[in-house]
Amino acid sequence: MMLLYVSAAVCVLALAAVGVLLRVRRYPLNGQEKAVVHEAGVTAMLGYLCFLLAGFLLCGKLADPTLGGVRPGSYSLLAALAALCAVTGGFVLLWCYMKKSVAYADRLVQVSWLGRTREIRWSEVQQVKVPMMSRTAVFCTGSEKLAVNGDPKQYKRFIETVRWLVPQHVGSDTLAQLAARL
C-alpha cells in the first residue's frame, strides 16, 4: 500500500516539474520572428491522458484493493505503471509545449523539450536536406545539424518563409520542392 502513496507522490512531482519547467525555461518570443513551428496541440492530449490514467489507476486501487489482484506484487506493478504513465505524460507535455523552431531574419533557433537552445545563422547553412519519404527539413552547417518538423499548418508557413531566408544556392530548390509537397 505504501508503494501506491510513493507512486502518487511521483505523479504529483512529475506534474509539478512540468509546470516549473514550462514557467522557467520556456523560450520567450519577442515579435521579431518570421516563423515559428512547434508540435501539434493535439499531441498534448496524450500527455494529459497519461496523467489522467495514472490518477485513475491509483484511485481505483486505493478505493478497491482487490482491483488488479491482492498479492503484494499487484501493488508494486500498479505503482510502477502509474509512475511510468506520469513520467510519460510529463515528457509528452514538455515535447508539445517547450520544443519549437523559430526562424528570424538572420538565424534559426531550435529549442529542445528541456528548454535548451541551439542556433545557426542562415549565412552558415551549407546544405538543406529532406530525407526520403519524410517532411523533415535538416539544415546543415559545417559543425551542426538542426532538424525541423511540427504542426502541419505552421510547418508549411515555416518552410515557405525560410525558403527565402536560406542562401539561394544552398537549399531554396529543396525547400521549394518540400513546400510543393506540403
What does this structure look like?
The chain is α+β, with helices and mostly antiparallel strands. It has five helices and seven strands. It has helices spanning 2-25, 43-63, 72-97, 152-162, 168-181, and strands at residues 35-38, 100-103, 107-111, 117-121, 127-129, 137-140, 145-148. Strand 5 and strand 6 form a beta hairpin. Helix 2 (43-63) packs antiparallel against helix 3 and helix 4 (152-162) packs antiparallel against helix 5 (168-181). The radius of gyration is 21 Å and the shape is elongated. It starts with a helix and ends with a helix. The model has no long low-confidence stretch (mean pLDDT 88).
